[in-house]
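Q: What does the assembly look like in three dimensions?
Context provided by user:
Components: two
Sequences:
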Amino acid sequence: MKTAKGLAGWVYSVKWITTHGIRDFRKLNVVAIVLVSSSVFFALYLAQKMNCSLSSSLEGFSLLALITLVSSLTLHHVAEKSLKNLLVLKVLGFDPLTSSFSQWLVLIFLGITGASIGCATFLLQSPSSLKFLLDSAFALVACELLAAVPGFVLVARSLNKSLAELSENA
Amino acid sequence: MPEKPIIRLIDVEKVYRTEDEVILIFNGLSLDIYPNDFLVITGSTGSGKTTLMNIIAGLDRPSSGMVLVNGVDITKLSEDKLSRLRAKLMGISLQSQSLLPNLTVYENVELPLIARGVPPRKRAEMVEQVLDVIGLLGKGYRRIERLSFGERQCVSIARALVTDPPILVLDEPTQHLDPMTTEFIISLLRGLHMRKGKTLIVTTRTRKLADVATKVLQLRKRSFRYPASEDRAASPRLSE
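A: Here is the predicted structure of the complete assembly.
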């Protein structure tokens, strides 16, 4: 009973931080989604022009690396901006592990949403490329999951320092 | 049997290190805080009040010494365990208020209850109750950015009170407040101490709060700087 109650409380904490992480930084999140979706769209467009698959050619891997770089820089910036709020939550008793995990979910949401919009735009521009797109979908999802890691690491490391240590480093 | 201290500071030292110098804020500080104590930490700007309060609340770690809260040395706890301990035992109001500006008064006050996993219906009841006590009932829907400084301070205190914690740690709760709001906050804190038996740890620069406290710790600004290369043993010992 106590475990179920604790789990319900934890799930609520995760839901709260995730929802507010998306809702409270509307402008920043929209910019992040636009940047990720643009990079995905141009990578797909270039791959199609070069007639190469994203997941099985050297050129494709280079484009995937570019998408990962753009996404990870963007998501890292989002994580940096949300850090202040997460530190307040820490003072109020939210444990750093829950907060870091929730922020990771926010970053994944932004990455996957951006990639989906990029793919949808690409499909609208070139409706016959569905098969090409489906071949690349798995690699794109993997890129976005990977791109969320630096932001997650930043949050997890910062939340595991004392507030004074953080301000000293700043 | 004599009561055990709820918080004990044993030979606590705090130094800040930069590349060229070491700044000694205080050392050799030992202090016992018992349940239902009303401790006021007073002193001028830069005397280390907030640093000491942060150490007591586990928001900062001492350079050496022990801080026992309910018998547990919190200097050795991980940040996760410290957060859980704060959620269970402490209500904290920081000098910077640290309210989330995008949220409403209600949502800000609700936060520590979410951290504790309190179910939504119970949360609503507890938030309403504390807003009533602090005189903010009916303002729960307002966004923080639209409140006056004094109202924000009250929200910050309401948030510290909402979980009904045994220990309240308040950093400069009456700073920049008008005389009427200051009187209100002081009488509220007095009531919490006398009627509800709370342990209060409050920092302040004014005499008014010190007058109603049961214990006063006066910190003097005498932080000592010496080059980082110098032998620490040569530094003077500052004790309260």
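Follow-up: Chain A is about 85% helix and 0% strand.
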